[in-house]
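Q: What structure does this chain adopt?
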Amino acid sequence: MRWVLVYLFLMLAFFGLAQDSLYKYPIDYKYREDQFYATIAHQVFVNRPSDIAQNSFSPEIRIGFLRDMPINQSRQLAIAPGLGLSYKNINTSASFSKFNTKDNFGNVVYNKQSINQFLVEFPLELRFRASTPTTHEFFRSHLGIKAAYLFWHQSSFSGFDSFTVNNRADFNSLLWDVYVSLGYNTLNAYISYGLNPMLKNQENFDGTSINFKRLSFGLMFYIL
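A:
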């Protein structure tokens, strides 16, 4: 009888603690996921002329907010529009040779160029995930498209002499990218491809078009 009383006491204590825990942390069946993001990636340029090479790490950094909007009952399928900021640093071993005449660069060859870009971006994601109301650790697959507006940029040239130019006229101000993010918990692989060229109708010295696009790969982190 004594052991029965001890067992009942332990059971009551357990259920009391469980109820207290549920009271403090109720299950949210209308949960949302992954509403803040951060990305660190390396940029590679596709279809670039043979005389233009990347000579160092060209980082892309993104941060922002995405409004998670589940569209099925299990909340494992969702769309997420958002708003964010991004920074891109591009390093090449040569300048983009023939510039817009407004920049007054002439046809001087520079052996190194570094470009810093700041953009405001508008991503939209379609989300597939294995989430539940009781865990924040799950597998995810996010497909996204984003429009990014280039609001400030600076080009630094070095060669025979060195100088910097702000907000050149030969850059596209509106950039479109598609991307995918795959992973588990907060850590995810990220790859992005630019749909339109970074430059406006640029040509090399020999008349060939400079029409390269952006390919980025790295890591994407989601929280809350």
